Structures are given as C-alpha cells and as structure tokens.
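QA checklist item 7 of 12: single-chain prediction sanity check.
[x] sequence parsed
[x] length recorded as 250
[x] structure emitted
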Amino acid sequence: MAKPQIHDQLAEKQRQLEQLEAEYKDFAYAVSHDLSAPLRAIEGFSSFIAEDHAQDFDDRSQRHLEHIINGSQKAKDILTALLDFSRINTRAEAFTKVDCNTLIAEVQTQEQLSEWIDLSGAQVQVEDLPTIIAARQQMAKVFAEVLQNALVYHAEGGKPHIHIKADETDDDWVFSVTDNGIGISERAAERIFNVLNRAVKERDYPGAGMGLAISRKILHRHKGEIWLEARNPSETVFCFSVSKDLNNEP
C-alpha cells in the first residue's frame, strides 16, 4: 500500500475518533445537565411536600413519598458515579510524585470515612508506603474506595481491622488492603469490578455499585490492575498495582 493511501486512512481514522469524542462529550453534558435537573426537582419538591404537608397524608402515603425521595437520591448518586466513571480519561489530571503515606492519612480524614472509622471503632494499620508517580486525586479515590469497602462491609457488632501495605516488583508497586469483613462469594467476585454491580443486596448495604469499577478504570490509566486475592467469611484482601513507568505519561 502506498504511503499517501496510508496517510489518508490514518487521517480519516483520526477524524472519526475526533467526531466520536465530540459526540461523547455532548452525551456526557446531556446526561449531567438534562437528567440532573429533573432529578433535583423531583427530590426538592418531594422533600418540600414531606416537610410542610406531612400532616395531610396518612402513613401509607408518607411511606410512598419517602420512597420517591430515596429513589431520586439514589438516581442522583448513580448518575454522579457514572459521570465520574466517564470522565476518568477525558478530564485526567497529570501524573506527579505522590507520597502514599501522606495520601492515605489525608483520605482517612475525609468527612464520611472519618465518621465511619469513629463510629465503627475501626483499627487501621498502615505500613510504610512508597512515593509513586501517579495522578494524586485519582489515587486518593482508589484508596478511599477500598477503605470504604472495608469499613462498610463488616460483620454487625464487630470492629473492622484493616491492614494496608505495599510491595515492590520489577515493574509495579502492588498495594494490598486486608480486612476482617463479611467476605465475598466466588460468584460475586467475578462481577464486583463491573459497572453497577455489587456483592451484596442493597437493602443490607447501601451503595451505587460503582466504586470498584471506577477504581479499576483509574488503575488501568496507571497501567495497573485491581483484583481480589482472598475471599472467605473472615477475610478479604483487595490488591491493586500501579506501574513504575509513568514518568513520561500525559
């Protein structure tokens, strides 16, 4: 094949790629704007009715109204998580040096995580962690997600014990987060990293089912992976890797 033909084909592929990217951005905007607004309206007006006119409804109607409010909030949470997932690569932050000891300490002070740690009486043991090349906020998201899983999915009445460490291989940093939670079944372990999939029933443990899918996509950007190493009734070990060869990445 002649060089001009190859050049023309590459140019056409580039044009198609740019068109798809533009369509994707339009779709993301439509989802974030056109769907978020009506959901906010449903939740807002339902809450207004519940607060100011509760006395006008019987118990059954009040329960129905509560379902509407909870359902709209869940839809908003799912929408936000899907948008976060879609923007991992399109709004990617630059790679820089990240001290993981400082990062995990900051993650533990996040309002919701800090509250869960205090309320559950969790013991979080962190071994000395490395300084890596990574997107700082994205890595904070990964640590927050796996730590949140360890805090949320623990046996009722028991105190979570969480151990975080890192090992070095020739090509990667491999982190592991071990907890004494409820464990994960073999069947569930195959799907928990997929979008909108969960290992447990929502009525038992609330959530959107997006945290691990978001984490996996972030780690793929870091030439890494996330996996489940142990899954039994008394222990869960999540491992994830980050490439050591990210210095020249965008």
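[x] summary fact logged: The two ends are 33 Å apart (CA to CA).
[ ] second reviewer sign-off
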